[in-house]
């Protein structure tokens, strides 16, 4: 049985896709069977992982019901990927039928038990794609950066999470808030971190112990077609993401879904 984690924040520029990519690659390096799902029409997660996003079936065709999941999955470097592209941008209007909140969950159901972890990257918006991610997930990780506007993005997630929990997916919970582009030397970082703890408490969650330090390697990595661990293994970000993987695997109950380490 798999554990499904959705990476989400309606605020853009908070390191959502880089976080999803690093978690996917880090878990795969540990020997776990991984399915990475890109729910962002920009297709960045698929691109980062080396998937073909223009001339192959994507999560859009899967959610429409045009193809089965076996025709959408691509395997790159030992990671199974459901890519996305710009066609998914019309989902809010196109997916209007009853039960549209569960299109992704139903689409991946035939293979979900084949994986240890399923990681979902969502768009920077609170729309039907994001709700599909929440409906399919067990846990939420919320990346943010030490800026006030990033905090506002998190606070606005609360109502959507509550709605999904009340109506579509009662088991979902927020695993934690992840601080990206972290620089403890800045006064604003300390102030925002304190407020993040308050919001985390309201979400019945926490701020994750691991912080991802600012590193140019994070921005460089997608262009090289490698994971951060291969492109810049000695960078602060690579070290921090490795610690994040350890923290996530140590979370209570998660080892039930993976391998003993």
How would you characterize the overall build of this protein?
By secondary structure, the protein is of the alpha/beta class. The protein has a single domain, classed as Rossmann fold, CATH 3.40.50. The chain is 43% helix and 17% strand. It has an eight-stranded mixed beta sheet, sandwiched between helices. Strand 6, helix 8 and strand 7 form a beta-alpha-beta unit. Helix 1 crosses helix 12 and helix 8 packs parallel to helix 9. The longest helix has 20 residues. The protein is globular. The protein starts with a strand and ends in an 11-residue tail after the last helix. The model has no long low-confidence stretch (mean pLDDT 91).
SSE blueprint:
Elements lengths: L2 E5 L8 H14 L4 E5 L5 H5 L10 H6 L4 H4 L1 E3 L2 E4 L8 H4 L8 H6 L8 E5 L6 H9 L2 E6 L3 H20 L5 E10 L4 H16 L4 E7 L2 H9 L3 H4 L4 H15 L11
Helix pairs in contact: 1-12, 8-9
Radius of gyration: 17 Å
Taken from the alpha-carbon principal axes, the silhouette is globular
Fold-level CATH name: Rossmann fold
Helix content: 40-55%
Distance from N terminus to C terminus (CA atoms, Å) equals: 17 Å
- The count of domains is 1
- Total of helices: 12
The helix-and-strand class reads: alpha/beta
CATH architecture: 3-Layer(aba) Sandwich
CATH class: Alpha Beta
Strand order of the main beta sheet, please?
3-4-2-5-1-6-7-8
Residues in β-strands, percent? 15-25%
CATH superfamily: P-loop containing nucleotide triphosphate hydrolases
Low-confidence stretches: none
């Amino acid at each position: 049985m798999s554990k499904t984690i959705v990476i989400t924040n309606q605020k853009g520029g908070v390191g959502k896709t880089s976080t999803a990519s690093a978690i996917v690659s880090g878990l795969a390096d540990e020997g776990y069977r991984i399915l990475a799902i890109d729910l962002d029409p920009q297709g960045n997660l698929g691109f980062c992982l080396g998937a073909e996003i223009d001339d192959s079936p994507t999560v859009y065709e899967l959610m429409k019901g045009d193809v089965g999941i076996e025709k959408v999955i691509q395997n790159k470097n030992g990671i199974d990927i459901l890519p996305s592209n710009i066609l998914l941008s019309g989902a809010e209007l196109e997916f209007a039928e009853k039960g549209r909140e569960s299109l992704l969950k139903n689409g991946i159901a035939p293979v979900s038990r084949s994986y240890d972890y399923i990681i979902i990257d969502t768009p920077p918006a609170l729309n039907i794609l994001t709700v599909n991610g929440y409906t399919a997930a067990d846990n939420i990780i919320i990346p943010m950066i030490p800026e006030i506007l990033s905090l506002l993005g998190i606070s606005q997630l609360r109502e959507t999470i509550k709605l999904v929990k009340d109506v579509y997916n009662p088991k979902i919970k927020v695993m934690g808030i992840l601080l990206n582009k972290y620089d403890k030397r800045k006064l604003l970082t300390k102030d925002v971190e304190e407020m993040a703890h308050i919001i985390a408490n309201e979400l019945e969650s926490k701020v994750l112990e691991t912080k991802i330090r600012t590193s140019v390697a994070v921005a460089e990595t997608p262009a090289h077609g490698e994971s951060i661990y291969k492109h810049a293994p000695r960078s602060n970000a690579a070290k921090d993401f490795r610690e994040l993987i350890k923290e996530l695997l140590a979370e209570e109950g998660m080892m039930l879904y993976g391998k003993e380490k």
